[in-house]
Q: What sequence folds into this?
């Protein structure tokens, strides 16, 4: 940062003339104030530089966020495709199991029907002989 234009001689003279400071006191105070403020004053150029730096940093952050957003959208699209593929495989397995269960039920009913018919025929023979 640049130093503030500060007229220490005029300040010291004002302290001597208006506040009745001694020459040593007024010069010492003027030098102390000049030293204390010389590295703490920001100029318009300093502020403009900081503004430019901040704008540059914000642009980098914005670019990073856009890249991250694009990356996340791509990952979400891939995940959706994976989920659709998994859903299709599960639907195929469910359909296969449904078919197997239906075959088992029809087979069981057929077997039970044969057993019942066999029992009825046997009963008819037994009743017919008596």
A:
């Amino acid at each position: 940062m640049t130093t503030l234009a500060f007229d220490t001689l005029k300040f010291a003279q004002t302290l001597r003339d208006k506040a009745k400071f001694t020459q040593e006191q007024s010069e010492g105070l003027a030098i102390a104030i000049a030293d204390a403020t010389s590295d703490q004053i920001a100029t318009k150029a300093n502020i403009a530089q900081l503004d430019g730096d901040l704008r540059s940093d914000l642009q980098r952050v914005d670019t990073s966020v856009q890249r991250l957003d694009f990356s996340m959208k791509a990952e979400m699209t891939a995940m959706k495709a994976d989920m659709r593929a998994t859903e299709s495989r599960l639907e195929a397995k469910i359909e296969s199991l449904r078919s197997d269960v239906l075959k088992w039920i029809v087979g069981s009913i057929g077997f039970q029907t044969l057993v019942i018919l066999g029992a009825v025929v046997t009963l008819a023979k037994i009743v017919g002989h008596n």
Observations:
- The mean pLDDT is 89.
- The chain is about 85% helix and 0% strand.
- The first helix runs from residue 8 to 18.
